[in-house]
Amino acid sequence: MDKVRGSRGNQGERDRQEGSRRMGMGTNLLWLGDLNQSRVLDAIRRADSISRVELAEQTGLTPQSVSNIVRRLLEAELVLEAGRRSSRGGKRATMLRLNATAYYAVGMHIDPASTTLVVTDLRGRVIERSHRRTPSGHGPARVIDSLVETVRRTVRSSRVPADRILGLGVATPGPIDAGGGFVVEPPNLPGWHRVPLQEELESATGLPVIIDNDATAATIGERWSGGDQRSGDMAFVYFGTGIGGGLVLGDQLYRGTSWNAGEVGHITVDAQGRLCPCGSRGCLELYLAPHAVVAEAARRRGEAVPDLPRRSAMAIESYDRLCRDAEAGDEIAVATVREAASRLGQAAVSLLNVVDVPLIVLGGWGISHVGPIYQEALREAGDERTIARAMRKVRVETSLIGDDAGAIGAASLVLYTTYSPRVSSL
Ligand SMILES: [Zn+2]
Asked: N or C: where does the chain have the smaller number of CB atoms within 10 Å of the terminal CB?
């Protein structure tokens, strides 16, 4: 599922757009435009607690710089002093930790069947959650009104003061023109092409709004909420209404020149395969997307193959049933999922040979009941068929953020944009 259709501006243009978006994020906020400052905050966020000396070691900054930055972070209440701990040389060092409840973010995942909303703290922990059917069939204005009402209600019941909310992140499947704030192919929302969702939501909620593809959002969410377990390099495979992914290299989301990096779903696994809407043949997504897996199971059972529209609520419900059957050991369901998993294994060999990451994370609601089947296939692929197999073992894990990866990821878009160290700020 392509994240961005058409061309995007150059890097400078994107930085300018993100910069102006960030500047809108509350005047009482310590803006972390200073790269060193955001590196220090990131190290504090990832550690449970950490001393100034350890911070200097980790970031390579001088003790004096660390001390100045920490003072500013303490003043901004983003960081707290959390007691003392003995360190080398018998000295007792003051420990620092993130003040996770200093600020919050709202995340909204709009999927064809349902919309999930979460309010998270600075660590990405969910403190309020709501779930509803995705409103449809009433045209953009009424749907936006209804989504905004859900945001208001969820924020109200979270009891978080409005001035502590950094922004609203929105994740949807399919192409996003993130620069322009448009959803290019909105799920289940007829008449929505080129609706300026970002602008509409910003003016209705008064919050800064960031929109991205759900696979990208989930990748950022995993990296953000996963702390030390998700630092370094990883490939994330997202199982939603389509198959997407994201690459984190050196702790940074790698977006690529046109912001379309990580499109795992369009790795070719059968050169003679069916034509994919992307223009290529035999793409992974044609075999792994919910409607495709459901159709394959029907074929194996000798039943009429259902013609389920891609991204339909019906395809999602049938897929969920099939995955539960596989989990319960139903033979045909297991065989169907194994076949899909071996296709992903094939794609993973190509991916691992190109990026050589030590970790693949499987996430999104589509993996909920079938994680072990996919993990087994991917481990086998990494350990037996990649060039570097003698040098490293590839860890294959399921997501730490669970079924709400899209919504938590959406909230993390806000946190990541506000607080993460950015290479482009250099
Ligand atoms: Zn394709």
From this structure: C
